[in-house]
From TrEMBL:
Taxonomic lineage: Bacteria, Bacillati, Actinomycetota, Actinomycetes, Micrococcales
Protein name stated in the entry: Helix-turn-helix protein
Organism: Frondihabitans australicus
Disordered: region residues: 1-33
Superkingdom of this protein's organism: Bacteria
Entry-linked Gene3D superfamilies: 3.30.450.180, lambda repressor-like DNA-binding domains (1.10.260.40)
Domain HTH cro/C1-type: 30-81
Pfam families cross-referenced by the UniProt entry: HTH_31, MLTR_LBD
MF terms (GO), sorted A to Z: DNA binding
Residue ranges of coiled coil: none
Cited CDD domains: HTH_XRE (cd00093)
Length: 281
């Protein structure tokens, strides 16, 4: 079957995107300079088989979420992103929908943090993209699919994370994220994907359902910035976790650092080396 215009555009952009442009290692066994299908699929959070069917025109109705994920993974410009939406039969998101696009300036900033774990999250605390040090510290995030990329789902329903919480810290974290999600839902009342997330969390987690029913939007005045990460290769690392807010795009940027010269700094460096080697292998 002949590829659709959507599939042709995705394939052209994939083949024209260098791995280094999206924070991936170049490697030495490449037949072509562009991204492999499995690499783009991993960055977009979809299966390589589905990406193949999209490119070949055997899948012709990608959801808006898939279109956005591909546009983000390929780092398309605003105009190319809008074109990709139109080719998929969707209108480009307007101001009433929650932003999930990462501006080029944020992508460039992410590339600058070559040795510092950084993750970029949307307003639902869903991971949009992470650099290689973040993956080395937290595990390969390209393997996280669908709701696994949303922090509340991972903590309440899914596999959790490598961050260690006391019971009190966990309760405070969940209260914060539920209140934050409620404020996000109020900002974007017409966003269907956000409403779907709330519905699925309500069905899957009694704790979430209970907290959501309270209607509370009170955010804790202060949460601890120190986080303990239990890394499988180097053990526990105590780190500073700072969150930067990109107000215009409603994004959250998490940055993990350690005080220079400390044992935690040495463990973080080792975790990044070991984890990066594992990702390359």
């Amino acid at each position: 079957m002949e590829a659709s215009e959507f599939g042709r555009m995705v394939r052209r952009r994939r083949e024209a995107t260098a791995p280094a442009d999206v924070g991936l290692p170049v490697g030495s066994r490449r037949r072509a300079p562009g991204l492999r299908r499995e690499e783009l699929a991993g960055l977009a959070g979809i299966s390589p088989d589905y990406l193949t069917r999209l490119e070949q025109g055997r899948a012709t109705s990608p959801s808006a979420q898939v279109v956005e994920a591909l546009a983000r993974a390929l780092r398309l410009s605003d105009s190319d992103r809008d074109l990709l939406y139109r080719l998929a039969g969707h209108a480009a998101p307007g101001l009433d929908l929650m932003p999930t696009r990462i501006p080029a300036s944020i992508s460039r900033m992410l590339d600058r943090f070559a040795t510092t774990p950084v993750g970029v999250f949307d307003a639902t605390n869903t991971l949009l993209v992470a650099n290689r040090p973040y993956d080395a510290l937290m595990g390969d995030t390209t393997a996280w699919k669908g709701l696994e990329r949303t922090s509340l789902w991972r903590h309440l329903v899914g596999p959790g994370s490598r961050v260690v919480h006391t019971p009190a810290e966990f309760d405070e974290l969940i209260r914060l994220q539920v209140a934050d999600l409620r404020l996000t839902a109020a900002r974007y009342p017409r966003d269907a994907s956000l409403a779907s997330l709330v519905a699925r969390l309500t069905d899957a987690s009694p704790l979430f359902a209970s907290l959501w029913r309270t209607g509370s939007t009170e955010l804790p005045r202060e949460l601890g910035r120190r986080k303990v990460v239990d890394h499988p290769a180097v053990g526990r690392i105590e780190l500073d976790c700072d969150t930067l807010i990109v107000a215009q795009d409603d994004l959250r940027i998490l940055i993990y650092t350690a005080e220079p010269g400390t044992e935690d700094a040495a463990r973080l460096d080792l975790a990044i080396v070991v984890g990066t080697q594992a990702l390359v292998d």
